[in-house]
Fold this protein.
Amino acid sequence: MSINSYRRIVIGDVHGHYEGLMRLLEAIAPKSDDQVYFLGDLIDRGPQSAQVVNFVKESSYQCLLGNHEQMLLNILTKRIPTQTVQSWLYSGGQATVASYQEATIPHDHLEWLNNLPAYIDLGDVWLVHAGVDPSIPLTQQTANQFCWVRDEFHGIEQPYFTDKLIIIGHTITFTLPGVYPGKLAQGQGWLDIDTGAYHPRSGWLTGLDITNGIVYQVNVLNKSIRIMPLEEAVTNINPEQIYFGRRNRCFA
């Protein structure tokens, strides 16, 4: 397998697993001319959200806004019902607060999170945390669609873009029909690389070298590492098996 010297690397939802991220980056070994992108959800659930945010913030890597970052920002900057705050804490926010000294999130972290883009267009590849709503023109969509959409996007029967692959996180791949833990999921014009690092059924954190079609994975539970061609890591999704409002969805 020939490897191009210049790589574009996309990393799925880290969810506070700093040590796993360090092992993943050690396996990938990004060079100075490589471009590394994070799909959002750096925080919540895992034990070291503060360390993850600080690392990505201080690096030259680009990062998207995820729904967990959006929840945190909404809670701290808007009048949010107590029930919503409790839902965020239950969904991993408590671990994020605990990862910061004196449970205080620094202003520079909040400012950095608040300026994260909702998507990144790389020409042939379009990066977004959750996907797009196929029923709404792209120009009318907001961070709510880009950070939260699920089944209506996963079930599209034709690619949303004719000339771009959409790469997403947000939905743990094994919650999609026929996908085993650790596998990536590919639908019509989209590829999901959130393999559920925080989830006890998986533990896999994924990085994808989209230039060379190579998947790097570290398991945060047993610390194992595996590297494989993209075609070996992917399960194809039949859009007819996706239906709206599907139950038993993991809240990612």
Notes: Confidence is low (pLDDT under 50) at residues 247-251. The longest helix spans residues 82-99. Residues 169 and 194 are 4 Å apart (CA to CA). Helices lie at 18-28, 49-58, 67-77, 82-99, 107-114, 143-148, 151-154, 230-233.
